[in-house]
Write a structure and sequence with these properties.
With about 170 residues, the protein is of the alpha+beta class. About 35% of the residues lie in helices and about 25% in strands.
């Protein structure tokens, strides 16, 4: 079944590339996400549609937490809110449980929030699919490649090896 979730934590170019490189992902929309309640300001993020018969919500959360600074309350958190945006109450409970289960894998407390989805604004057209349009850009090589290599090493079962073939060639 196709389901939906939002993720924010680092720049949306990075987050978009991370989720676009996984099996079972139907679509990734890059842009700005706002929550309802206390976190109504827009922050960089992605809306992900995924096939939960291929990749679970818990796996997406694990990958998300391991591919951004999910334990750091750094000065850019306003722009890069560490969050999982949920579309229903059941996913909120699942996300909170997943974070609690994953906490022992981290040296510091996970600061990622579980927030109800409020609104989304897409990035400009020329910024969409930023990484896969030109993975040789210095930003991509410096910031995104290490995240994708982590997926290949730690979450290889879920990596779309066709999309990530160029990384293996870089290591050769």
């Amino acid at each position: 079944m196709v389901r939906q979730a939002g993720f924010g934590g680092g720049c949306h170019w990075c987050t978009e590339a991370v989720f676009s490189s996984l099996k079972g992902i139907v679509s990734v929309q890059q842009g700005w996400i706002a929550s309802t309640g206390s976190d109504t300001s827009f922050s960089e993020g992605v809306i992900v549609e995924y096939n939960d018969d291929i990749i679970s919500f818990d796996t997406l959360i694990a990958i998300h937490l391991h591919t951004h600074s999910s334990t750091s309350q750094h000065s850019m958190r306003g722009k890069y809110r560490s969050a999982i945006y949920i579309f229903n109450v059941q996913d909120a409970e699942s996300a909170k449980e997943a974070i609690e289960t994953l906490q022992p894998e981290f040296d510091s407390t996970i600061i990622t929030k579980v927030l109800p989805y409020g609104a989304f604004t897409s990035s400009r057209e020329e910024l969409l699919d930023y990484y896969f349009n030109d993975p040789q850009k210095p930003f991509c090589e410096l910031y995104i490649n290490p995240k994708l290599k982590l997926i290949m090493e730690r979450f290889s079962k879920f990596a779309d090896t066709d999309k990530l073939r160029h990384l293996k060639q870089l290591d050769a």
